[in-house]
Design goal:
This protein is of the alpha+beta class. The chain is built from four helices and 15 strands. The longest helix is centred in the N-terminal third of the chain and has 24 residues. It comes from Paenibacillus aurantiacus.
Length: about 250
């Protein structure tokens, strides 16, 4: 069942989203060769706690961290670690903020130092594909219209669109209906209505879209070892158009 939110509830989620966006802005200034994703994880959790929020991911199905940190060939759900980031890496930091019982979810890919043009283009296209999807998130359209816009744009650059992991509804629970794939035909899936709130979070790979799972049961990597990038916003469907709740 898709849970429609009131304007007041969306405003509560917007407050969580603004806090999450502030954390990403801080992280952007921290990213450099030599920093560890463990340090970023500690910073994000402390920032949330200082502002009256909690990391919703921590403890979720046994997950031990406030953030996910996915480096280079890791698609998503990577564990923060004490391995220093190196010049040329790309790293995606993903987190869910719980503020007064309402959630917001956003992931962002960052370049570490000087990245190769191949990596920069992957990040640029992934980000733009997310916004192409958001443009389609209007009342009367369908989830498939969002998905098709993302896939069409991404595949135009030859990238693989990850299929195993998708966007999702969100509210007082991290994962609600509907599921929001980033591939598929236009005109299919649930019709978008006022009050729907969900994430759009494309993951693009330089090679195949297929993934493999590490022995830890969480870390998903590209099957061919290629690079992966991800950008994610939480959005609300309103009569005036999509409202990005995690806008930086």
């Amino acid at each position: 069942m898709i849970i429609l939110k009131t304007r007041e509830q969306i405003e509560q989620m917007h407050k969580a989203g603004k806090l999450l966006a502030a954390i990403h802005r801080e992280i952007a200034g921290m990213i450099r060769p030599g920093i560890t994703t463990s340090a970023i994880d500690r910073f994000a959790e402390q920032y949330m706690l200082k502002h009256g929020a909690t990391p919703e991911q921590k403890g979720y199905n046994g997950y031990q961290f406030a953030t996910c940190a996915s480096v280079n060939d890791v698609i998503c759900h990577g564990f923060p670690s004490d391995r220093p980031l190196e010049d040329g890496d790309i790293v995606t930091i993903d987190m869910v903020v719980n503020l007064n019982g309402w959630l917001a979810d956003s992931a962002w890919s960052y370049a570490v130092g000087n990245v190769k043009p191949e990596a920069q283009q992957l990040m640029d296209v992934t980000k733009e594909s997310m916004y192409k999807g958001i443009e389609q998130a209007v009342i009367g359209n369908r989830i498939g219209d969002v998905a098709h816009a993302i896939q069409t744009y991404a595949e135009g650059f030859g990238y693989g669109v990850v299929k195993e992991f998708v966007g999702h509804g969100i509210g007082q629970e991290m994962h609600e209906e509907p599921q929001v794939p980033h591939y598929g035909p236009a005109g299919k899936g649930p019709r978008l209505k006022e009050g729907m709130v969900f994430t759009i979070e494309p993951m693009l790979n330089t090679g195949t879209w297929q993934s493999k799972l590490d022995a830890d049961g969480w870390t998903a990597r590209t099957k061919d070892g290629g690079l992966s990038a991800q950008y994610e916003h939480t959005i609300a469907i309103l009569p005036e158009g999509p409202l990005i709740l995690t806008q930086q």
